[in-house]
Amino acid sequence: MGAELGKYKSCVSARSTDKELLKCAQDGGIVSSLFAFALDEGIIDGAIVAATKEFAAKNPSKVIIDSTNFDMIEPWRPIPAIVNTKAELLAAAGTKYNISPNVALLKEATRSFGLDKVGIVGTPCQMQAVRKAQLYPIGMRDVGASIALAVGIFCMENFPYQSILQLVEDHAAMKLESVKKMEIGKGKFWVYGKRGQVVQLPLKVTHKYEQPGCHVCLDYVANLGDISTGSVGSPDGWSTVFVRSKIGDSVWAKAMAAGVFETQPIEKVKPGLELVSKLANEKITKNKATLEARKTFGVGKALRNPYI
Amino acid sequence: MADKITLGYTHLSGCTGCTVALADNYAGLLTLLDKYVDLKYMPTLADARHVQKVDVSFVEGSVCINDKLAVEELKETREKSTIVVALGGCACYGNITRFSRGGQQNQPAHEAYLPIGDLIKVDVYIPGCAPTPQMIRNVAVMAYLLLKGTKEQKDLATAFLTPLMKLTEKTEACFCELMTQVINQGLCMGCGTCVAACPVNAITMEYGKPNGERDLCIKCGACYSQCPRSWFSFDVVENYEAINEAIMAALQ
Description:
heterodimer; A: alpha/beta; Nuclear Transport Factor 2, Chain: A; B: Rossmann fold; Alpha-Beta Plaits; five-stranded parallel beta sheet
């Protein structure tokens, strides 16, 4: 196990000790608990998270959307939102399985939302965007130093909204309104209905609906987050957590001291880091091959390579 | 101090917003001038206004080719500078001056404005309208390290500045680059960065991809150059913590 997991100071399997929060959480409630704690402690004064239409309806001042088309917004379409309280956090919790453009709110968070210390959660590519924005703040005036906690989530690939629509309504034959939770695990895409029904789709079916832009990504475990987390590697209901930066280390230590999480050594849990490492290598190898193929694309003309 | 680098500032057809952005580093600007940079000439912030021989010159604004004086000043800047930095959207890409069609008092015949890269060789771009104080600061520190640093610092500065040097290959920018260079190339993953970067709120995310109000776009180049899929250097960005700390320490 090496570079595929990025630099990190420590790695554990963890879950929130907050039972109420765990009910709304995707896995171990890591992101929600971290932000709730950071809000309480004043480490951040707001966080950019992925919410949905229901959240936007109840909290119109926490989102930026064109309200003239509000009725047109579909269920499970992610809407980036600013949350300032634990209740708002919980209302927005859970994985949406299609990309939420959270970075779109990064500058506005420090402007009309008035945040001095911003928390942001995002996929590995969004963590790359955040760090590039700190080093090369071309259109991000006074933003870099305001980023107080960036939490990355593991990501093999993502779906555009229309793909989720297709997968859930066509392949799983469920209405999106009636879906309680979606999940990828154990080699399958799971759709849980509000009435208790469960549909599973093999990932073979979902592959063709992935975002093409994800296929050049070389980061599985959000190497550039202050802290990154995901379910892979840990038992059900737990999450694997990498603590990566000085900021991450400090926040994690404070959260642990406050009893926000219970943890197990990652070496002691099944399937453990080996699986994380295996999947990371699979993603990187596959996407490096895509980048290689793009050099000629079989027609002797190169497609653009973003990495220099 | 003997090991300072010398800096000049040539002001062509720009609104002084880039100057203000530089000044908005506040105490950071004073530290830069104290420790690292000897400001040789600059129309607004220095007594000397005329182009001199310098290590680095910042050029603000596009160049009006109907204005002999501006063209001469730009040529002289190139001849007398080791590194020419196009500062801001106008110098890099024309920006708002692209829309000029002349007819303005008191020089109605001044109608044709070009990004400076169309007339001279430019070494580094700092796009954006206005460019941000932090970006100017980072480039200034890196330029210092490139010229006066240790071998290791020179390597870091080279790696940091390389993407900004590569940007000089083009003198046109528009929201359209997000379409032609990112979405059309199968590289957009919908992170939302371009929306935040746009200074005129011309971009929104529609179903996971940027949608540009092209009539609002001022062609500053911020969206494309801020996009993590326009260019991304793992060598540089993976060391973001150390680099940020080094820059902040340099300005203490």
